[in-house]
Amino acid sequence: MVEKKFQTSVLTSGSKGNSILIRTEKTNILLDAGLSGKKIIFALQSVGIDEHKIDAIVISHEHNDHISAAGILCRKLNIPLYITTLTYSVCRHKLKNIPAGVCHFSNGKTFKIGDIEIRAFQSSHDVVDGSNFTFKKENCEKKLAVATDVGFPSNLMVTQMKNATTVIMESNHDVKMLLNGQYPPQLKQRIKGKQGHLSNEQAVEIIAKIIHPKMRNLVLAHLSEENNCPQKAEKLMQNYLRSINHNLELIVATQHKATKLLQI
Ligand SMILES: [Zn+2]
Ligand SMILES: [Zn+2]
To answer: What is the pTM of this model?
Structure first.
C-alpha cells in the first residue's frame, strides 16, 4: 500500500532562525518563520515546495529567531497567521498588518488547519506564552512532535510527545562547551536555566522517556553554533539509540540547509 503524504522538513534551525514545514496532500504549514523571507522561500524550493502552496504560518513564541519573516511572508503569500493572544500582544508591532487575518490558538487546546490537527502545549522558556506542538493528520495514526526552546523537560511535555512517530527535539548545547565558552555568566545562566534551552544530555533523557518501536525519525534541532557541535549531539544520541537497539533515521538540523522531506 502506498503511504499517504504526511511529511516534514526542518528548513532551518538554530539561534539565527527557525522554520519547519509540515505538509499533507492538501495542506502546507510553516511552523515559525525566523529567517529572511528569501531564505525561507529558497529552503522551501530546495525540498521541492512552491512557496505559494503554503496555507498558514504558526508561531511558537515571540523571539526574533522564530518570527522575523512571519509578517512579510503572510503578506507576500496572502496567508493567515496563527499565534496565541498573549504572544501576539507582545510582537504585533513587529509582525505588522496581516491582511489574510490573525487566528488565535491556546496552549492546552487543539486546532485545525486544513486536514492537520495541531495540539499546542506550554513550553518553559523566557517568553510570555511559549508553545510546543504535536501535529496529526486526519484519520492517520502518525504523529509529529516538535519541542524546541525548552527550559526543562516537564511532565506535560513528555506526556504530549508520547507515541510520536517523528520527533523534532531541541539539542541546544553541550554543557561543558557552554560553561567553558565565551558567553557572559548571565547568558550562560539563562541558557542553562529552567527557561532557557535543552542540553544534548537532556535531549537524550527526554527521548528515553518517549521512545517506542514505531518512532522512525528523530531530528536534533536548535543547536547552538557557539556551544555545541553537531557531531557531539549526534554521537550522544546515537550511542543511546544503539544501547537500546533502536534503529531510526537520526538527523541533525542545521542553519544552512533544509533536511530532506521526512515521512512522519
Ligand atoms: Zn526562544
Ligand atoms: Zn529559538
So the answer is: 0.97
